[in-house]
Amino acid sequence: MKKYKGVIFFDLDGTLLNKQSKISENNLKLLTQLEEQNYLTVIASGRSPIEIEEITKGTAIHSYVSLNGQYVVIEGEVFANHQIEKQLMADVLAFAGNLGHPVACYTPFDYRINFIDEATEKLYELDNAPLPEIDPNFHQNADINMLYLFSEKVKNDRLLQERFDETLTFYRDSPFSMAIVNKNRSKKAGIEELLQRLELLDETNTYAFGDGNNDISMFEVVTHAIAMGNANEQVKEAATFITYDHESDGIEFALKQLNIL
């Protein structure tokens, strides 16, 4: 495998993407410059591989830590594939159903939901993405990497976390949704797997850009943790550098301030 000068991890929503869920022309230019400087650029996101590959089509990015660390690809090759046990999924769907919350089931390249409610519609509108197809039995016949629960009732988060504390990890990543993965899986865990595989010319040249609560864990495993200006205060407190927001060329500002470009 090629030896890189360093590796830079990018969250997508609220970080690399603009409000239209696209990579801006300026950020596309930056990705090309980073490739020319021998940096490996990696997406670290709760989104699925099918979404990531569509978003990054035509860019220099061919590596990603997806589904909150459950599925890792390095230079186009699958390196880690963590799945949720089927009976455990059935228990989550039943418990969430009793609370009135729909759950989507994600494989790397497909996803389905058991039913759709208002929170579901709000989330996919926010992400500028189409609603998933309805299939209550999808989890029975597919290998699922991540569950995605839709709810605006934050008080119910605690009920789910207490019920499945020993087996699952929960990330509320929007006012309308919560990602669910195997216990102790995270962007951090996926990044650790990726970094163990890479041979870096300088191991201190590790960087991560993020804005959400599920980005805090990845800040723990890089030397330089950059919070976007639009990040919440908890994320900013965990960062080593705070840049401008994702609509104000915050990535470019940070790369220049950190003497990468």
Give an account of the 3D structure:
This protein has 261 residues and is an alpha/beta fold. It folds into two domains: 6-81 and 186-257, 3-Layer(aba) Sandwich (Rossmann fold); 86-182, Hypothetical Protein, Haloacid Dehalogenase-like Hydrolase, Chain: A, domain 2, CATH 3.30.1240.10. Helix content is 33%, strand content 24%. The chain contains eleven helices and 14 strands. It has helices at 12-16, 25-36, 49-55, 86-98, 118-126, 138-141, 157-163, 187-197, 216-219, 233-238, 250-257; strands at 6-10, 39-44, 63-66, 71-74, 77-81, 103-106, 111-113, 133-134, 146-150, 168-174, 177-182, 206-210, 224-227, 241-242. The strands form two sheets. The chain has an eight-stranded mixed β-sheet, with helices on both faces. A hairpin with a 2-residue loop joins strand 4 (71-74) and strand 5 (77-81). The longest helix is centred in the middle third of the chain and has 13 residues, at 86-98. It is globular, with a radius of gyration of 18 Å. 46% of the residues are buried.
Give the helices and strands, then pairings:
Blueprint: E1 6-10, H1 12-16, H2 25-36, E2 39-44, H3 49-55, E3 63-66, E4 71-74, E5 77-81, H4 86-98, E6 103-106, E7 111-113, H5 118-126, E8 133-134, H6 138-141, E9 146-150, H7 157-163, E10 168-174, E11 177-182, H8 187-197, E12 206-210, H9 216-219, E13 224-227, H10 233-238, E14 241-242, H11 250-257
> Helicity level, as a percent range?
25-40%
CATH architectural label of the largest domain: 3-Layer(aba) Sandwich
Could you tell me how far the N terminus lies from the C terminus, measured between alpha carbons in angstroms?
24 Å
- Report the uncertain regions: none
**Cα shape:** globular
CATH topology label of the largest domain: Rossmann fold
